[in-house]
Specification:
This protein is α/β, with parallel strands linked by helices and about 500 residues long. Helix content is about 35%, strand content about 15%. The strands form six sheets. Strands 10, 11, 14, 15, 16, 17, 18 and 19 form an eight-stranded mixed sheet that branches. A three-stranded mixed sheet has the order 3-5-4, with helices on one face. Strands 1-2 form a two-stranded antiparallel sheet.
Length: about 500
């Protein structure tokens, strides 16, 4: 607390001191904390540059705003760029992180019902008047479990009772997911909200957590976990799961696979499917296994090469005038054949060493990716590269029994695709979630939209994938084809 003396009046002021906080994934250092108003959106924390803006008042709202920003400084990633390769929108990730931070503040002893500035009801009215479903979901996720969320729903109800009922289901899904997390692990300290399951807890010395001079003790680990070449705070595992649920609730424009231009909201049936499976039945988190050795070399041309042609400007192969019936005396440059092949290696699919070599022999510059998730696991790798631009595995890695990461694996494969390359997906057309149960309609629709938008060519066997690569090499354009009755329905 500081004392502000202005015109003879003694005014107590609260302060935030993030430099008191310790984290094992970053060094301690000085922060610049500046004063801001106690209104929604005006407080923020920038961990990269160690900047923070919070209100300095001693009222209840100012205290919980400082607590919220201090918790961000303690547990949140350095920046949202840490999540850059994940198949989720930044808005969904931010909303999920807001939810986790609010819950951790509650565990620390702060009353998060005080985190409202009176604008929430009016915000709900505007959202309902504009029919803005996606921002409604994001606002509910950011405030779920607090009175601010109830005020937003009250504002929604004053304009559109139906959307208010849906918003209430959305809030319940997030709150239930938090309760299920704590029940599963027995305590917040042992849950993925603080760290990933299966990892050592490390130093359990209590952190002194203070925003208003009254110290509160909270066990929060600052350890890190390498995840697909990103370094995230261990508690980000829970954020990723909540963000996946947020993403699934957003309405997408089927024509472009985009959530920003979509109209209306998801159907009651789709929302019920999601809220009933909010106990974790969403896509599993993608974990890439980098340990598969690529010790063999592909045969064939990988880079750019010159071939003879009978069309051109400057003849370079004059000897062909006598030996070549087609008079191909000119040169043209072609690229080595590539492509990305994503292969479902669940129990219903099989993949052999010969299968991988058949793909590589047809397209030496291709990337072959296998995927399979172990049902209900949280730290078992579920995606691996079997061939990468001329390097090939010596033995195929076996699968884990289930699918679980169909959509995240598709996004991962698409990021490895070069311009103009085909993306071929070998699968049986059935997509499942983290417990290997069939994905609800809204998630199947998400996959189908991605396939259409990105012109993914689906085939049921490796032999058909080889045929597709041969057709692509000859210049044919692969059509977008949906395999599987479930995805066709979506």
């Amino acid at each position: 607390m500081t004392i502000d003396i202005r015109q003879g009046v003694v005014t107590p002021k609260g302060v935030a001191m993030p430099e008191w906080l310790t984290r094992k994934d970053s060094e301690q250092g000085s922060w610049v904390v500046q004063e801001g108003p106690a209104t929604r959106g005006e407080a923020w924390t920038n961990r990269m540059e160690r900047l923070m803006q919070v209100p300095y008042g001693e009222d209840a709202l100012s205290r919980v705003v400082r607590a919220h920003e201090m918790m961000h400084a303690k547990v949140s990633p350095e920046s949202m760029d840490s999540f850059r390769d994940l198949p989720m929108s930044p808005n969904a990730l931010r909303a999920a992180e807001e939810f986790r931070v609010n819950q951790l503040c509650s565990v620390a002893g702060f009353d998060m019902d005080d985190l409202r500035d009176g604008s929430e009801s009016q915000t709900g009215k505007r959202l309902a008047e504009n029919g803005d479903w996606n921002n409604t979901v994001l606002m509910i996720a950011s405030t779920a479990g607090t009175k601010a969320c109830k005020d937003i729903i009250r504002g929604l109800r004053s304009v559109n009772p139906e959307i208010a009922d849906k918003a209430k289901k959305v809030e319940k899904a997030f709150v239930d997911r938090w309760k299920a997390e704590i029940k599963k692990y027995g305590s917040v300290r042992d849950s993925r909200a603080i760290r990933f399951a299966g990892q050592s807890v490390g130093d359990t010395t209590p952190t002194v957590f203070s925003t208003d001079g009254r110290n509160k003790r909270l066990y929060v680990e600052g350890d890190v976990l390498a995840d697909d070449e990103r370094v995230l705070p261990k508690g980000a595992g829970f954020t990723l799961e909540i963000a996946s649920l947020v993403e699934a609730m957003l309405k997408y424009d089927d024509s472009v696979g985009d959530a920003t231009e979509a109209d209306g909201e998801i159907s009651d049936e789709e929302l019920d499917a999601l809220t009933k499976t909010a106990g974790g039945r969403t896509w599993a988190r993608l974990i890439v296994d980098r340990s598969v050795p690529l010790t063999r070399r592909a045969k064939g041309n990988l880079g750019r090469r010159r071939v003879a042609t009978n069309i051109g400007v400057a003849p370079r192969r004059m000897e062909r005038l006598l030996t070549d019936p087609d008079k191909r005396v000119f040169d043209r440059t072609i690229k080595g054949q590539g492509g990305v092949i994503l292969i479902d290696q669940s129990g219903s699919m099989r993949l052999s060493d010969d299968d991988v070599m058949a793909l590589v022999n047809e397209a030496p510059g291709c990337v072959v990716i296998g995927y399979s998730h172990r049902p209900n696991s949280t730290n078992v790798p579920n995606v691996w590269v079997l061939a990468d631009r001329g390097k090939v595995c010596s033995a195929v890695r076996s699968g884990n029994g289930g699918n679980g990461v169909d959509y995240p694996a598709l996004v991962f494969a698409n990021k490895l695709r070069k311009k103009g390359e085909p993306l071929v997906w070998v699968c049986d057309g059935h997509v499942t979630v983290s417990d290997d149960g069939f994905a609800p309609p809204v998630l199947r629709k998400q996959v189908a939209s991605f396939v259409r938008k990105n012109q993914v060519h689906m085939v049921p066997t490796v032999a058909e994938a080889v045929t597709a690569l041969r057709r692509a090499k000859s210049g044919a354009r692969l059509t977008t084809k949906i395999v599987g009755h479930d995805l066709n329905e979506a």
